[in-house]
Amino acid sequence: MISPFTLLFEEEPNHGPGLPAELRAIYSGDWRLPAIPAHRPAVWTNFVISHDGRIAFNQPGWNGGNAISRNSRHDHWLMELVRARADAILAGAATLRAARRHRWAAGELIDWPAFAALRASEERPPLPALVILSATGDVPAATALTLPRSLFLITTAHGAERALATHPQLTCLVGADGQIDLPAAFATLRQRYGIRTLLSEGGGRTYGTLLLTQLIDEVFLTLSPIIVGNPSPPAPPRPGLVEGVGFAPQHPPRLRLISLRRAGDMLFQRAQLHFATAAETV
């Protein structure tokens, strides 16, 4: 049994369903779901970052979040919790490629019946749908694609043609004019397929795209007490939390802190995202 988190701050703004008592006891508080928009799912992200804002060492054998969290049991538990409340999980093709054996399911790292019970109580299927983001349609073979779940690909017309040649089980959500259209894809997931909640486990580029399109409601962020650094070329760069987009200094996206928890030297932040105006990039 994992020891309880230490609650440092909490100011819950939501009024949706909360956690059962067994999970509240470990989390040392509650997590109430936000209102579900009619036009898209409620969306949250979950990252573990180093003290200097890196999300991966980007070298063989040290490429996943476990290297940043140092295999923290509390970070694993929180990952399972946020997955347990997701109807679907979003991952970029690069993330899928880097973790081919990953299942993207609650209970993958901590096999605890309470997570399955939470999914059942909130009328979610045993496995969340998997939504892959890829403009090119270059979707690798992966364990997650072989499990009994709904599979979606957000892509272009060319990407759909390429992906379906090797993965005919995918439902492709195709943007117009050769582009990915995330708002339209999320609307389809909500209105046609009943996806109410979506967790993004994509990397820094996926997170940047979601910020740019203002499609995130809440952020779960684990701050690990390690320093990763970013070596000079020719060593491969070590990605940060947000990649591929920069915001104008006048109106950057802003976080409103909901809760802060501690376990040892790890800090666990939950926050709402607020967008003051239409996104401006630099």
Automatic annotation (TrEMBL):
Keyword Membrane on entry: no
Keyword Protein biosynthesis: no
UniProt-listed SUPFAM superfamilies: Dihydrofolate reductase-like
Keywords: NADP, Oxidoreductase
Ranges for domain Bacterial bifunctional deaminase-reductase C-terminal: 41-264
Pfam families linked: RibD_C
A GO BP annotation: riboflavin biosynthetic process
Pathway(s) the chain acts in: Cofactor biosynthesis; riboflavin biosynthesis
A GO molecular-function annotation: 5-amino-6-(5-phosphoribosylamino)uracil reductase activity
Entry superkingdom: Bacteria
Entry-linked InterPro entries: DHFR-like_dom_sf, RibDG_C, Riboflavin_Biosynth_HTPR
Gene3D superfamilies the UniProt entry points to: Dihydrofolate Reductase, subunit A
PANTHER family named among the record's database cross-references: 2,5-DIAMINO-6-RIBOSYLAMINO-4(3H)-PYRIMIDINONE 5'-PHOSPHATE REDUCTASE (PTHR38011:SF7), DIHYDROFOLATE REDUCTASE FAMILY PROTEIN (AFU_ORTHOLOGUE AFUA_8G06820) (PTHR38011)
Protein's UniProt name: Deaminase
Taxonomic source organism: Chloroflexus islandicus
Phylogenetic classification of the source organism: Bacteria, Bacillati, Chloroflexota, Chloroflexia, Chloroflexales
